[in-house]
From TrEMBL:
Domain Dockerin: 290-357
Coiled-coil stretches: none
UniProt protein name: Proteinase inhibitor I42, chagasin
Transmembrane segments: none
Cross-referenced InterPro entries: CarboxyPept-like_regulatory, Dockerin_1_rpt, Dockerin_dom, Dockerin_dom_sf
Region (Disordered): 184-203
Any single GO BP term: polysaccharide catabolic process
Organism in which the protein naturally occurs: Pseudobacteroides cellulosolvens ATCC 35603 = DSM 2933
Biased composition annotated in UniProt, kind: Pro residues: 190-200
A matching Pfam family: Dockerin_1
GO terms, molecular function: hydrolase activity, hydrolyzing O-glycosyl compounds
Amino acid sequence: MRKNFCLPKLFVVLALILVFSVLGGANSFAVLPAETIGEDEFLFIHTHTYTEGIGDVGEYKVIDSPTYFYWADQRKLTSYDEVPGYNAKIKVIVGSERRIAGTAGIGSASELAVYDTLTVKDKFSIDYDLSVNFYMNNEWRKVKLGDTWTQTVESAPETGNGKIRTTYTITNFGIHKKSDIIAPGITTPTPQPTPTPKPSPKNYSISGYLSSESLQLAQDCHDNFKIEIQGLGLSALTDKSGYFKIDSIPETSSPGSLYLVTISKAGYLKRSLLTQLSENIEIGSPLQPIPMIPGDINTDSVINMSDIVLLAKSFNTIPSDVGFNSAADFNYDKVINMGDVVIIAKNFNATSADYVNPTITGINNIKLYKDDYTAIILREGQGLTWDYSISNENVIKFQLKQTGTLQYSEGLPGSTWSFKAINEGTATITFTSSAGKVQKYNITVTDDKYDITVKKDETFDIPLREGGIASTKWDYVIGDENIVKLESKNVIYRGIDFADIKWTFKGISKGTTSITFTTNRGDTITFPITVT
């Protein structure tokens, strides 16, 4: 009887030994009941590889193929391409993202892979408690439900004497409903799908310098030229130096759309120009302002006998006289005399069509810390070339130029120039193309990343990024609110899956304090503040 009784126990013990040996002896395999992940559910795993080049690491690469975004706060997975292999039996979705930066290159790429099994040899397995065993950087990594694993390693490049710093990340985002997937070709049982969030429109500025060609003697009298963007109701007047700036102009909606910008002032030929707006631009400069032609008293876009008649009617008058016409005082000497006659005679028969199109310069402002790198990518090839100049090579220095793999819509390859910030200060990198286009990059380099010094009653901004794959949120604590207080918090740019947030603070009394920002993941940044 005992032998018959013990035999089933022996089988049970052997079975348990077999199960535990499999579970404990091979990280690449685990057992999980299928019912743990429902038919309308999937487990989402996100992996991220961030590669940063430091110094000379050889070829500079450009990648640009992000295919999906994950909204961690909403638990929504959005793909802009069809997800290969997706079907109703899917149990696991793995998102893989790669980013490169520094001297290694620039850009990002991502893709989704789907699986209808809970174990994939040499890739991943799912444990009973929904922990993930994932093979990354030549080893198995265990990531519990809701946790993130990360590792940073440094290596030598194949060529060059710099170093490559790579950070590997695995995040186990857990169980999701299949209705949380938004992608072409995927239908969900949700009767009213959540619409894909759209990025906020980008706004840019147009600035520049104007001058009257008649003001060889009069200085600082270039004011009150009106610059207007037709159809938007946006305008500005020049100051005495001829400078103007119009902010908050929406980006042109498509490559073929243009803004009509008009420049006018009583006594001058009206000037018009068409421009796209996909960046901040400058028209003219302090050394080469855009000239405006005087003589058009009746503003009919031509200087002719009609204007001569109007000048004659106010000849020899001064501002206190009834017949004085300020539009005919071209040289700003407060009297209509032969000086103005000479100017109108010089420009006689000129029309608005005689204006030469000005050079439009793209303006980019870049803030760097000492030893940081920045990459400037411009279209180049098939006869189009760029030359650059640096106004202050003690602040920023050229490192290398590479032709990347990114192809522009016109079929021309993009070249990338890499620069390194070497000292505190300001500098301008000016690129001029063989076609006459100009791009300016205003560089500001600071040494201390976090110290802030302001005067009493002065405001200062702290910009940080929220959102992204980890759904980052920032909170702050002020050490002494008698010294600094919060003025406002605003979104300055909203991307597909992130937002750039600007906190504006004000120094209210002299002293020292600090502002500590902490993320929902426990990361902290402390800004020492001095109010003078």
